[in-house]
C-alpha cells in the first residue's frame, strides 16, 4: 500500500525551527468541486471563502501580494469554474505572534465579490465560543506535496479527529488551548494520516462547520499531533 501525502502549502522558512505548517499524510483525491469553499493562494497557502468578499486563512500566510483562486480542482488547468480575485487588504489578527503562531488567523478582503456558484460556495463558521468536542471526526482538504519532493495539482483530502488538548500540551511548548485546537489521526492506522507540510490556512471542517485553520506541526513526524487555530475563539473578531 502506497503512503499518500497530501498538502496545501507552506513557507517553511518562516516557521520556528523543527516545525512546519500544514501538509496532509494518508489522503485521497477529493471528488471535483466537492469542497467549493476552498481557496488556493498561489505561492504558499490555502484558505476558504466565508463571505462573498472575504477569505479566511492563517496569519503566517501573509505576503506582499495575493491573488486568490476559487472554484478550482486542478490548479494547473484553466477550468471554467475558476475565479481569480486579487486581495485588496490582508488583515492578520493584531495579536498574531509569528514565533509561537498564537492567534494564527487572517482575513483577506477581496477586490470584488466572488460570484457564488455550484463550484464556489461559503463555509459556515462556528457560533460564539462553542468548542468542538474531542473525538469529533473532521475533514481537511488542499493542494500540494504528495511527498517531500513531489507535488500534486488536484485537490486532496483526509479525515482527522479532534483530540484532547493535553496531548498537544505534551508535544508543544507553545500550545494555548483557548486559541488552538489539537488534531490527530482518526483511526490510528499503520499508514498515518496527518497534516504535515504545505496545508497552511486550510480549514478543519466538522459537520459542515469550519472549526480550525491549519497552523503548525512537528517537522518530519507524521505521528505527532497537529495544531489548528481554534476559530470559535475568534468569531467576535471576524
UniProtKB/TrEMBL annotation:
The keyword Protease applies. This is Peptidase S1 domain-containing protein. CDD domains: Tryp_SPc. Residues 1-21 form the signal peptide. InterPro entries: Peptidase_S1_PA, Peptidase_S1_PA_chymotrypsin, Peptidase_S1A, Trypsin_dom, TRYPSIN_HIS, TRYPSIN_SER. It comes from Pelodiscus sinensis (Chinese softshell turtle). One of its GO terms (cellular component) is cytoplasm. Keywords: Disulfide bond, Hydrolase, Protease, Serine protease, Signal, Zymogen. SUPFAM superfamilies: Trypsin-like serine proteases (SSF50494).
